[in-house]
Amino acid sequence: MNGHDRNMQAHRSHSTSMVFLLGVVLLTIIHLVNTTVPCTENNSKILQKGVKLARLMNRTTADITKTYQAYQGDFVEQFCKMSMDNVPASTLSGRTSSERVLSIYTHLKEFLPHVKKVLEQQNDLQPPSSPLLPVLSQLKEQINHLAQRVNCIFQILQPNILVPEPPAWPTRIPPAQNIFQQKVYGCVVLTRLSEFLSATLEELRSLKGSMGKKRTGKELLSNSWN
């Protein structure tokens, strides 16, 4: 088997796995997201679904990044670690849980236009049948859904404060790029998003655990008075 055949086989393997992945994602999103009546579930369920959605996105974004690299042709993974000031950072900020949750929300909103831009670029670079396109489109929707969940979590922590919308950053979307620059930009965006989602998952898990302990403590205290 020559190099071309091996590449074609790898692409077919990626195509099959990504189509399956997209189906799993769609089913899970339907279960985890209620877009008609947001933030009406009890606190533990909101947190639980937020953690599940973050875990799903963390896993799928890592897979999408690998698939993205495979579909860029002669491409080196190190390009994905290049410094780009216009792409959001992958780290959270804030000293309190509320501040870090707000940081998650802000980052999701900042990543969204970049993912849209990557999708636009790949629509021009990839054939219409490429399985990379639908999963990038689905990733864009997932970011919106997770932002909605994080908004609800922030309301649990700060019920009297509305989540401030981050300012628009139109100048942070890169201007016209050549094909190589587009490939690098897309991989940097997806790599940082994957790292950010890993930090998000860790933060939401920690928050879920700490709130669970508080609830258990209150229940024990209540039972001791009965």
UniProtKB/TrEMBL annotation:
Compartments reported by the entry: Cytoplasm
Signal sequence bounds: 1-35
SUPFAM superfamilies per the UniProt record, alphabetical: 4-helical cytokines
Cellular component GO terms, alphabetical: cytoplasm
InterPro entries the record matches: 4_helix_cytokine-like_core (IPR009079), Ciliary_neurotrophic_fac_CNTF (IPR000151)
UniProt-recorded Gene Ontology molecular function terms: ciliary neurotrophic factor receptor binding; growth factor activity
Gene3D superfamilies, sorted: 1.20.1250.10
Domain of life: Eukaryota
Keywords, comma-separated and alphabetical: Cytoplasm, Developmental protein, Differentiation, Growth factor, Neurogenesis, Signal
Entry's family note: Belongs to the CNTF family.
Function, as annotated: CNTF is a survival factor for various neuronal cell types. Seems to prevent the degeneration of motor axons after axotomy.
Name of the protein in question: Ciliary neurotrophic factor
